[in-house]
Amino acid sequence: MQLDSDSNRLPVALVSGASSGIGQATARRLAQAGFAVALVARNRERLAGLQAELPTATSLTIAQDLTDFAALGALVEAVEAKLGPIAVLVNNAGMAYTGPLETMPVADWEQVLKLNLTAPFALTRAVLPTMRQRRTGTIINMVSIAGKQTFADWGAYCASKFGLLAFSRTLAQEVRQDGIRVTALCPGAVDTALWDSEAVTADFDRQAMLAAETVADLVLYAASLPERAVLEEVVLMPSGGVL
């Protein structure tokens, strides 16, 4: 991994939802590849456990509720003060709620959309000024196959992910002239703690799902492409056919 050409420091990646699952695997992969990593999630204890595996000088943990949108500007400032300008943003934090739309409480609908759609929008807005100034940067949005097709009882999740894909496509058009790349990753079912949530009822074979590390490999690939290339959108599915 090449040093940041402006500061002679390691390139910095901010990963949201880094305390478990895809986010945790992604943070490990990026650190192994030579990125300085900022780990953001709500669970302070899990973040500390992950940071213990990483070099202290080139990692930072921030326990933050990403739906506190007013706090995200200060979060980005703290990352840049410790590690340097953010080269890669991985919008990975997310949640799900299953149940028929007819009986879904409005509060649950709003919570899913706030974390899965509005938080990536707000966090992206916070990192864009520095990326524009430096005329470089990569924004990777963890969408889902649920951003391309719908599933009964997953209405709020699908709506949030369809919205995130539209956000990614629109953002790509708006910032590519500034040297900023936007990637939408749409994995199928991944074996993470999402399936253990009390808010999710599903009966899938978790052994047939993608591993979080496989998705993390794709994140690293997208982030490591030459600056004149961009992986704009990709679907990654388990070979066994499980959604």
TrEMBL record:
Sample GO molecular function, one term: oxidoreductase activity, acting on the CH-OH group of donors, NAD or NADP as acceptor
Example of a GO cellular component annotation carried by this entry: membrane
InterPro entries xrefs: NAD(P)-bd_dom_sf (IPR036291), Sc_DH/Rdtase_CS (IPR020904), SDR_fam (IPR002347)
Pfam families with a match to the protein in the record: adh_short (PF00106)
UniProt cross-references to PROSITE patterns, sorted A to Z: ADH_SHORT
Record flagged with keyword Oxidoreductase: yes
Keyword Metal-binding: no
Keyword list, A-Z: Oxidoreductase
The family this protein is said to belong to: Belongs to the short-chain dehydrogenases/reductases (SDR) family.
Protein name: Short chain dehydrogenase
Source organism (scientific name): Gloeobacter kilaueensis (strain ATCC BAA-2537 / CCAP 1431/1 / ULC 316 / JS1)
